[in-house]
Amino acid sequence: DTYQERDKAGPTTLSFLALSLAKAGRTEEAKVCLRNLENHAVTQKENDTTRLGKADGYSFWWEDGVETTALGLRAHLAADPGSDTARRLMRWLVLNRRGSRWKSTRDTASAVYALVDWISGRRENAEPMQLVITLNGKSWKTVDIPASGALDFDGNLDLPADQLLDGDNTLEITKSGGGTLYYSSYLEYFTLEEDIKGTGDEILVKRSYSRLKNVAKPGVAESELHERAPMEANAVLEPGELVEVELAITARNNYEYLMFEDPKPAGCETVEKLSGARSGGESSGLADEFRLQIKE
Question: What digits encode the pLDDT tens for the residues 257-287?
């Protein structure tokens, strides 16, 4: 039967099989299928997610990442709801939304059904809870959240700037009662550091500058061939010098498009204002660099 031939099955078939076995009361066999399903899982430790299926299947629906991950989540919830894999599958689905939906009505429905199963099984808002918030060791605010009222209370809290310290600040949230607490924080600040250390989470951007020097080569125009020399901090440039700016982007998720704004340094003017693929006219091919020139 299908269970005996499970080694030949893909993630979709294994998920359906585990879900069916769990509903039939054959929990141990369902857990075996879940262990087989781990062979198809793609786990990313940086953002604590697990995906099943293809990350980008174009217009094909089979083994679609959203649908297959949603089905895998439902299988885990049916056979092993307390597994850490179930939590990571849920996180991947949530992080791969496109606003209030996923890619299509089909995969959106699959994701919504799976997430409803997740919430229903955990009874996350079935009991009231109380939050005691302290800032730098001092009690700041108490928030009472009624049962099944997680969406009815104002969950936006603005920290008073006059209570923040220079340097490190400690914000603690102590929960009492049932339910599960989800929170996020946002901080905007101005730093006086000369060399700001890079940081990132889902998207990391590393910017580097290179000094460009003309290189003479027979048959090649002098303005078309350059030698790159990495620039260190506090480097001194002369008027007329060319500088190349490079942004190295690392994304820990799948995106259709991203837009970045990188202001040009003071005293510089752009030499090439367009980037991307161009054909005919002034150039052809792919322009993968952005160049600046120091003004007189």
Answer: 788 888 888 888 887 766 655 555 444 334 4
Q: Are 288 and 228 in contact (CB under 8 A)?
A: no
Whether the Cβ atoms of residue 93 and residue 32 lie closer than 8 Å to each other: no
Asked if 279 contacts 261 with a C-beta cutoff of 8 angstroms, the reply is no
Domain check: are 136 and 239 in the same one?
no
- Count the Cβ atoms, other than its own, within 10 Å of residue 257: 4
Q: Which domain holds residue 66?
A: 6-122
Claim to verify: residue 54 and residue 152 sit in the same structural domain: no
Span between the terminal Cα atoms of the chain, in Å: 79
Query: pLDDT > 70: what percent of the chain?
Result: 85
Do 24 and 50 belong together in one domain? Answer: yes
pLDDT classification of 52: cutoffs 50, 70, 90: very high
Any idea what DSSP says for residue 63? Answer: T
Confirm whether pTM is higher than 0.85.
no
Measured CA to CA, the distance from residue 159 to residue 26 in angstroms comes to: 52
Helix (H) or strand (E) holding 50: strand 49-51
